[in-house]
Design goal:
alpha/beta; binds flavin mononucleotide
Length: 358
Amino acid sequence: MSFYQRIRPLLFRLEPELAHGLLIRALKMGLMPAMRQINSPVLRVNLAGMMLPNPVGLAAGFDKNAETLAHIFKQGFGWVECGTVTPKPQIGNPKPRVLRLPEQEAIINRLGFNNEGMVAFIGRLIERQAMPKRAQGIVGSNIGKNKDSIDPNGDYVLGVKALYPYADYITINISSPNTQGLRDLQHDEQLHALLVSIEQTRQMMLAKGIESRPIFIKLAPDLDNEQKASIAKLALEMKVGGLMISNTTITRPDVYGLADHWMQSGGLSGKPLMSLSTQTLKDFYRLTEGKIALIGVGGIASAEDAYAKIRAGATAVQLYSALVYQGFGVVNRINIGLLQLLIRDGYANVIQAVGVDA
Ligand SMILES: Cc1cc2nc3c(=O)[nH]c(=O)nc-3n(C[C@H](O)[C@H](O)[C@H](O)COP(=O)(O)O)c2cc1C
């Protein structure tokens, strides 16, 4: 029995946010046992110009305030995304707002971008620059808008400007279901206006001599075919660095039957999201003809799941909910299993398997 399996019943007796807070604190203090680093040229990938030692990343929402950077890479991740951070600090929605569904290995959350704001976040990215090499790795910043913002595009522009010098990449989160109106930014005209503002900001940063950073857009798995087609077209036109597919779903895939909390409001993540988010990924791989880097997120709990995302079109993957049910050990299990699956099927590296099922 792994260390995590032993402590899980204790953690699950605690309210989810309290348990999460303890885990963040343990990571910050360097109390979590370090994992072996899986090194293989087969697992190495180039994601939008960034070299990842392996394709398995930490999804946004786990470390909203970039607090764990000194130690998180010791858990085996090939890359890490912090945030969502908003320009101003905000407390988020009333509690309870995170619910576990253990039988489904799922989570429903309606946090609403609780975070300490941009100033604290950037301070930690600056501290990271002085950290030892072992703590270095690709770190992305996921940005959002404040709940009370009257200028959503302005919030994203501010985020890009502020973070450009410090983040390895930036994710524009327009798909969390818990901030009213946020997902509307995925609509054709609004998305076009947002992407134009972001591109102008990026050009401004480049003119100042700041190194170019990939910009990813994080999408919902709940888009209809028309929306998917128009987003793909815009992403190609505006040459976005990548599409992250997907955030949590507001649907409740009924294959899993009735569970406690099933009909609670919020975004559903974990195993019941796997099939929907992988289908959405596949659709985007076809629509973008493999010309844009895609990142597969949603329901990954095993090497087979990660492999399915890659075969559906993902260059790299991310996970969150599986950490709650399996602990950090899942990261190395996925990498080792993925290595075996790629070798079994005759692929020399991850890239050769990208999109073969799409
Ligand atoms: C508690 C919780 C908080 C999250 N917060 C964020 C967030 O702040 N920003 C974001 O882009 N995604 C957030 N997500 C979504 C995850 O990044 C991911 O897209 C989603 O959970 C699907 O992956 P999973 O099934 O591996 O968890 C959150 C997910 C959970 C469970």
